[in-house]
Amino acid sequence: MAWFVLVLSGMLETVWAAALDRSAGLSRPLPAALFGVTLVLSMSGLGYALRTIPVGTGYAVWVGIGVVVTAVYGMVSLGEPASLPRIGCLLLVVAGVAGLKFL
């Protein structure tokens, strides 16, 4: 259960990052509220998962998921560059996160 919550919390990191971007410096109420709610949920899930997952592994997995999903969101939805070197670097992050989980 802890791993499921950790993965979900990592994905929520993407939601709060996108909401923060859309909030225009927290000046738009709806995106700012979404940012706040998803930030609290994401951190709470991380805290729950760290009850049973070692902090180094859990935090790295949480951040890695957030980094990869947020970068892909930026490439797909926001027109950010999707070059082969960038995609290769994201695959290295995925490999590192998978290594932490399985080794």
Automatic annotation (TrEMBL):
It is found in: Cell membrane. It holds the Pfam family Multi_Drug_Res. InterPro entries: EmrE-like, Small_drug/metabolite_transptr, Small_multidrug_res. One of its GO terms (cellular component) is plasma membrane. The chain crosses the membrane at residues 33-50, 57-76, 82-100. GO terms for molecular function: transmembrane transporter activity. Keywords: Cell membrane, Membrane, Transmembrane, Transmembrane helix, Transport. It is a multi-pass membrane protein. It comes from the Bacteria. Belongs to the drug/metabolite transporter (DMT) superfamily. Small multidrug resistance (SMR) (TC 2.A.7.1) family. This is Ligand-binding protein SH3. It comes from Winogradskya consettensis.
